[in-house]
Write a structure and sequence with these properties.
InterPro entries: AB_hydrolase_fold (IPR029058), BD-FAE-like_dom (IPR049492), GDXG_lipolytic_enzyme (IPR050300), Peptidase_S9_cat (IPR001375). Keywords: Hydrolase, Membrane, Transmembrane, Transmembrane helix. GO terms for molecular function: hydrolase activity. This is Alpha/beta-hydrolase. The protein is α/β, with parallel strands linked by helices. Helix content is 45%, strand content 11%. A four-stranded mixed β-sheet has the order 1-2-4-3. Helix 8 runs parallel beside helix 11. The longest helix is centred in the middle third of the chain and has 25 residues.
Length: 331
């Protein structure tokens, strides 16, 4: 994962504006409150990890710290292995790669162990990587995933149209069947404006990670990537053939990343796709009325206080999306 033109020479300055300080204090208090609310999740994880499973069984379920790149010591991942109790046949088990968020500057895979196990118990192979953070994609992870996969899609279409080159495997990523994008940022410019309105744009790493200029914001925005290649989406048969299925999930109570980020991206894809072929590209939107930013992930984590009310509908939407038969299976 990498970003174009990230700013590495910026100094960190604390804001002194009273209004800005007040806004930041409110945000910090909200975060502290959310940590208290999430304490049962932490206790459930510790109980499951050390009392129910112990060390040896955990090692059989999870392969930890598998190196996937020598570029950085952060480039390691965990693999969650489903057991034989699931209904999904072994040879057909989909693999879900979860790229966590953290404002492009923080977060680690260990935090998402309970969620990884929830998906593992559904019968999926789950891969959760750590990756290089700024200054060395759920919300940030959704942006990273969308930017990388859509850039690769456009590269495949360009290679095939320009050269008729069928050996794209040497130059492109393996085929990604689908993107599950939870509460993502797809337009960096408008999200920076949102951060400024909240008074956090100076302490957030996003502006610096994305290059600190409007031009670089647009270069790193999946929405702008799609918009600037509208002609390929409209005319390239190859692009639509390789296009991944996409599921957008967003909560209407999300104040960290506004719902508009997902709706704008969803609508942009609808605009650039030819009307006669829109049904061939599976793009879905699922909105949750009372879901906040972190809850689309934390709802999938077991808690000593019982299952989150969003857990079942989220699992239903994930399974409905992931387990759609491929065209080969349908034939």
């Amino acid at each position: 994962m990498y970003l174009l033109h990230a700013q590495t020479d910026a100094e960190f300055n604390l804001p002194y504006s009273p209004a800005r300080v007040l806004k930041i204090n409110i945000i910090v208090l909200n975060h502290l409150f959310s940590w208290v609310v999430d304490l049962p999740i932490v206790l459930t994880y510790l109980y499951w990890r050390y009392w129910q499973l112990g060390t040896e069984k955990f090692r059989r379920i999870v392969s930890r710290d598998v190196v996937y790149s020598e570029a950085s010591k952060e480039c390691v991942l965990d693999i969650y292995h489903p057991d034989g109790k699931t209904k999904i046949p072994t040879k057909k088990r989909p693999t879900i790669v979860f790229i966590h968020g953290g404002s492009w500057s923080s977060g680690q895979k260990l935090i998402y162990t309970p969620m990884g196990n929830t998906l593992r118990e559904l019968g999926y192979v789950v891969v959760i990587p750590d990756y290089r953070k700024y200054p060395a994609g759920h919300s940030a992870g959704a942006q990273l995933a969308a930017q990388v996969v859509l850039s690769d899609l456009l590269k495949k279409a360009s290679l095939l149209s320009a050269k008729g080159n069928t050996d794209i495997h040497a130059h492109c990523l393996p085929q990604v069947e689908g993107l599950l994008l939870f509460a993502g940022v797809y337009n960096i410019e408008t999200h920076y404006q949102h951060e400024a309105a909240r008074g956090v744009e100076k302490i957030s790493a996003m502006g610096r990670a994305m290059g600190a200029t409007i031009e670089n914001f647009r270069r790193n925005s999946p929405l702008e990537l799609v918009k600037s290649h509208a002609d390929l989406f409209a005319t390239s048969e190859d692009l639509l053939d390789f296009a991944p299925r996409i599921l957008f999930v967003h909560g209407e109570k999300d104040t960290t990343v506004p719902l508009q980020q997902s709706t704008d991206m969803y609508n942009m894809l609808g605009e650039v796709l030819p009307p006669e072929r829109r049904d061939e590209v599976d793009i879905r939107m699922r909105l949750y009325k009372k879901l906040k930013h972190a809850h689309c992930v934390s709802a999938l984590m077991p808690s000593k206080l019982g299952a989150n009310r969003h857990c079942k509908p989220l699992i239903r939407d994930i399974m409905d999306f992931v387990e759609v038969p491929s065209l080969d299976e349908q034939a």
